Amino acid sequence: MTSRRPSALRRRRVAGRLPWCLIVLAGLATVAGAQPPPTPVRVAPVTRPMVQEQRLATGDLRAIRIASLAAQEPGLVRELRVREGDRLAAGDVIATLDRRRLELHLDRAVADLAVAKTIVDQRRLDAEDARIDLDTIRGAHAQGAVNDRELRSNELKDGVALALLDEARQRVIAIESDIQLLRERLIDTTIVAPFAGVVIARHTEVGQWVGEGAAVVDVLAIDAVEVWIDVPQEYYDLIRSGDPTVTLEVDATGRTIESTSMRIIPRVDARARNFRIVMTLDNGAGALAPGMSITAWVPTGASSPQLTVPRDAILRNDAGAYLYVVREQADGAAPVVLPAPVQILFPWRDRFVVRADRLHEGDRVVVEGN
């Protein structure tokens, strides 16, 4: 009985492992015999339109407006409402300066104006009396009742009265000008944003004294940016005489923009032999920032038939760019999808102009579901 126990034990162990072996073999048979359903893909045709040759150029984004906002009035900073990174609308209050001394000067000037107007009224009455006296003396002089000396004395008094009246009136005008100036200076104690933008630097703090013309904050406009691109000098006349559309690619975001609003700087750098073109881009969404690098495709040649593929068809690996092209089978079997390497020449609208030995006009390439 002792010799039969090990055999029975082995049979029980084998019997215990057998279901697991059958499960593994069944799984392997399922994997070997089953085929996954084909993945649905979307294709688009390869085209050969007339395309103008383009050349790669580089540039960067620059601020269209940047201002260091200064204090027009000297004074103590009472309030500073912004910090770096805050967005501003045109007219937003940035800082306020102490205005108590100017308010006191204004109160005194208003009081001086009231006194000056009273003096004008008094001088007007004096001038009217002097004119009445002069008219009376002139009548008496005509009748021989008054001598020439007395007439000249009254004429002199009339002139003096008129001069004093004019002086009083000019004094009123001067005080009114002082009041207007003081009111303007009071307005200048409030520093506001001249345009919409973002605060990029602060140069003072609450409680600090700022002098006339001292910088308070720096504000950068973000509603639009400028693109500055360096282009080789041999294309100067071609670009100057045409109206090309430039394709821009923002390196930081991958965003592609087409622009025709081009300005040419008519000066060639003596060392690099490049000239610059400048374009203005709308930046209402704030996705562009000055300092970002730009890749530009500038039209520099004649139009010719070029092979183009949708941008979504392009894939990349360590060997470079490639795509998948649909190939029909000679025996009538289902089409197959094969990889084909391509060389990207330049972007064009929503496509790439490419060079590929295995690609022809009319071929279908996969744009979705690779």
| Mean pLDDT over all positions | 86
Terminal CA distance:
67 Å
Secondary-structure element pattern, one letter each: HEEEEEEHHEEEEEHEEEEEEEEEEEE
CA-based gyration radius: 44 Å
Helix content estimate: 25-40%
Q: Name the shape in a single word.
A: elongated
**Helix count, per DSSP?**
4
Structural class of the secondary structure composition? alpha+beta
Tally the beta strands. Answer: 23
Sheet of most strands: 7 strands, antiparallel
Poorly predicted spans: 1-33
Strand line-up across the major sheet: 13-12-16-2-11-15-14
- Beta-strand percentage range: 35-45%
Q: Describe it for me?
A:
- There is one protein chain.
- This protein has 370 residues and is of the alpha+beta class.
- The protein has helices at residues 4-33, 100-142, 148-188, 236-241; strands at 42-45, 50-63, 66-70, 75-80, 87-88, 93-97, 190-192, 197-202, 209-210, 215-220, 224-232, 246-250, 256-259, 262-265, 274-282, 293-305, 308-310, 315-317, 320-327, 336-341, 343-348, 351-355, 364-368.
- It has a 7-stranded antiparallel sheet. A 4-stranded antiparallel sheet has the order 3-10-8-5, with no helix packed on it.
- Strand 19 and strand 20 (336-341) form a beta hairpin.
- Helix 2 (100-142) packs antiparallel against helix 3.
- The chain is elongated and about 140 Å long.
